[in-house]
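Sorry, I am new here, but would you mind making up a protein's amino acid sequence and the tokens describing how it folds?
***
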Amino acid sequence: MFRPFAVFLLLMPILLISCRSEELIRPGDSLEVAYEKAYSLYEEERWRDAIQSFETVLSLGRGTSIGQDAQFYMAESYYNNNQFLLAADEYERYSGAHPNSPRREIADYKNALSYYQLSPRYNIDQTNSRRSIELFQLYLARYPNSSRVDEVSDMVDEMLDKLARKQYESAEFYMRNNQFRAATIYYELVIDRYPGSAWAERALVSQIDAFIQYADNSIPDRRQERYEEALASYQTYLQLFPRGENRSRAEELYDIARERLQAYDGEPVTERR
């Protein structure tokens, strides 16, 4: 018995393969036709097929305007497919090969954005965060009038805050393990490298505490200088964060350091301001 529907089902895979074959680049296609097929795949959001097709177009048309377009959209396809490291490589190649292209700005932006997308949690290696910051800062220097300046600046601040937190948490680790000298050094790194971050104020307050505990656990001959370092950290705090949200805690620690120093050497210590 003839069953047309069953025949149609049998023919469907053949039809699909045939249609798909028509969409992909074939030997004999002109450069223009090959690019049109690649771009159609891009518009259909078939990123993997688009990447392969743009690679073919680029190999055939390197040095042409079509090859230039293919290289840009290959980078875009990698980005849209969440292959950010490969996307970054292609954006960088595009900018290097076509420095005067109207798409140079967006390629530079997306290059930095790719590393931003790769930036992990603060407690993991921050190589990609640092690369993102570097590229975004180059972008801001190269395109100071870009409409993306505020957006890029916010992302830079976000990355810097993540780096600051990683450094701060390292200092906290040393504090928990009673390695007070190491803690003071790592707090200082937060203050020096990331003064605009929210972690800088916390680091200064914690550094006062670390110097006090460092002094408390030092041999008698070294206590005075370390209490004095605690007082010096407090003066730095006043200069940098006169209205800091942790000022009351900083003042408590200042009083502790001042009283212990005075008890140690018998000399009055200047009152805080």
